[in-house]
Write a structure and sequence with these properties.
Number of domains: 2
Largest sheet: none
Structural class: mainly alpha
Radius of gyration: 34 Å
Strand content: under 5%
Number of helices: 2
Organism: Cetraspora pellucida
Protein name: 2685_t:CDS:1
Shape: rod-shaped
Distance between the termini: 103 Å
Number of strands: 0
């Protein structure tokens, strides 16, 4: 059974046996510092991924627009040739 004041081994002289709560707080703060060390990096990466998705969507739109414009240009060029032949 767990007892916060019971010692499972040699007692650390820097931490009083009755100060387990303070020890726990220190360990949690250290854990939070380690886990949040790359927070800015992760947020920046996520932002880039979102922008990449938007660029990919925009690229698809532009490719479709280019294809439509090319087809329209070809159609108009054929009409011009027919009109020139007619006179």
């Amino acid at each position: 059974m767990f007892s916060p004041t019971a010692s499972s081994g040699p007692v650390n002289n820097n931490i009083a046996a009755g100060n387990w709560q303070g020890d726990l707080v220190v360990k949690l703060l250290l854990r939070d510092r380690r886990e949040k060390a790359f927070k800015d990096f992760v947020e920046s990466y996520n932002s880039l991924v979102q922008k990449l998705g938007k660029f990919a969507d925009r690229n698809v739109e532009l490719e479709l627009s280019e294809k439509t414009a090319t087809e329209k240009n070809g159609s108009l060029s054929r009409e011009i040739e027919i009109l020139r032949e007619q006179g």
